[in-house]
Design goal:
The N and C termini lie far apart (about 50 Å). The longest helix is centred in the last third of the chain and has 33 residues, at about 345-380. This protein is about 65% helix and about 0% strand. The protein is mainly α. The protein has helices at about 15, 20-25, 25-35, 45-55, 60-75, 85-90, 105, 110-115, 120-140, 145-160, 160-165, 180-200, 200-210, 220-250, 255-270, 270-280, 285-290, 300-310, 335-345, 345-380, 390-395, 405.
Length: about 400
Amino acid sequence: MNDFAETGVGGSRDSAIHAARDDVSGDRALRDLNRWRDGRGVFPYDAVVTHYQAVGRTHADARLVRALRDAHAWLSGPADPGDAPWSLATWLPSTFDQDDGDYDSYLGTELLEGVAGVRIDTLIVTLIAELLATEAAALSRAPEHRAQRARTQACLHALTKSALLAPDAPDATEGEPGQDGGAEFAAYCRERAGGALAAVPTAHLRAVNLAMLPTTRLHDEHMFIRSIQIFEMLYRQVVGHLTRATRALELDDAGLAKAELAEAAGRLEATAALYRVVTTMPKKSFAVIREYTSGRSAIQSKAYREVELLSATRTPHPYAEKLPEIGLAGPTLQDAFVAAADRLPSDRLTDVAVQLARLDGAWRGMKRTHWGITLKIIGVVPGTGGTAGADYLKTTAEMPLFPALTTLGTG
């Protein structure tokens, strides 16, 4: 396994370097798991997560992986005990997906969405704050590490933008500090992160911890996983806005449709703060991460695909065989707008058209940023999902969210 001795950006996770011997071997997790199976204790979530974070998911102890798979089969069978936490059966597949995992199992998407329920914005802030806490802790161990300082600064900036990224969450948008020294800045960031995390439910904190099962020992993979988990939750919120906007147009409620579209566009416009974090990924680290995440591509994102399919009917996707099946009922947002235009005076839909154009611009702008970052970090090599990589992203960035409306001049 590729490994780096130092901690922080460009190095290994501190938890991997300083893990106890029986956590590295998996002996503690396996011993505690067997006790649970024998009815002599609770499920050893912490021991399992500690082992996986110490060695990486793809190098987890084979005995433990088999035992976790067996535990999942037992929980899923007809003898499923009534007192088994629902989250256990949801989470376990991420612990034994080394050979057949996908994008969702890599991120723990089902667990995160299930725990968040209607409080996805709170989960988004939890993810950002946890990432800031992790990066600030790394900076406190190496205050003069310039790349780590830049990463921590970017994470703090993302937290200050949380009112735009997650407007329904507890406010965490206090201003950013001046240019203090590394140690002082790290302490400030840890305090800010701790304050934000103190305001979120314990269940969110637990799910965020369980959903961090990196494939490598690299510190940078923690940032990578957290960043795309945040994007996934953000897309899920945009899906909600589009669904409600479509329904509002069906009911001729142009005011509600405008409001929903404006909030969706605002969220996407704020993603620049998230991409600022992603740009701190060193090329060398990402090359290692790519090696262990083949087949776990962002093109498999269900929420991302739902945003596009809810917006307008589309031609078959060029990589359709690699994508999850998504069945959506009812008209698209584009269809609902066109139909409403046949019923309502044009002046009632003018503001809606403006927000549709704004949303289209925000979506395409976000994809252009993704393309530029991909080109910078990995160049023109194929993507992990078998796509053409940066070239594929460039093509998708040119596709409008509402093709018919762009043709008609509203976009």
